[in-house]
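Quick one: structure tokens for this chain, please?
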Amino acid sequence: MAPEPPKIRGLFTALGRPAILSFPIKDWYEIVRECTSTSDCFVFEVGWYKNLGGKEEHEFLRFDILSPDEKHVAIVVAERGRGKHNLGDHATDAAQFTETAAAPASSGTILTPPGAITPPLTPPEIAVAAPTSPDVARDSSPSSAEESSSPLHKANKTSGKQEEERQQEREQCQAVEEAAKRAEENVKAADETAKREREQCEVAGENAKVAREAAKREREQREVAEENAKAADKTAKWEREQCKVAEENAKQERKQREAAEAANAKLLQELEAFRRAATILHPPK
């Protein structure tokens, strides 16, 4: 009985047949490049082939990855050059199964980045068997990569080619690290901006509170002034009424005084007439 495959997401599966899984390119880096569990595995063979049968040319890189216990093989086939401009895309993960390829003794998994065409489990010129040991049988005879030859071609794996691939891998790693550094700097700058905005909002809130309190005091002062104005209007009205009453009283007093003066004048006239009459009747001797 074959031992249970290691539980490393994306590389080994407990299914009895190979699975073709489509992951975002971000998951490729997380699973193969950055996962700590994957660091115990190692790639024991790398292959390259391309499909010239369609309108577009598609190149594929094939990685045969051995599990830490050296009992299981995961086959990773990725379309070369896909996803390098959309590292932030989040395509939906999809799993497909095929009945056309022979199931290996241990479960194998093929990963393709999003947007890539689904490669065959076993290219026509590569015979693959994934047994429970690291020995993998395959046709290692190289073929030409010219367009005039058969649709799928496997390139010769030379030290120069491997060095070029390693250099490309280092450049890609450096680009990813620089992108992560820039993203971290952008996040830090965004945090600083958000902090300044929060401080400005707090200052604006305090200013608004002070302005509301000042407006409240102004309203209270205006209400007091209006009450005082109303009281002053009432006082002025009362004073006007008192003045009017005083004028009426003065008018009555003038009339009474004029009547008294007229009566006194008439009395004086009568006294003068009486005196004259008395003088006539009794002349002085």
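The CA atoms of residues 41 and 68 lie 5 Å apart.
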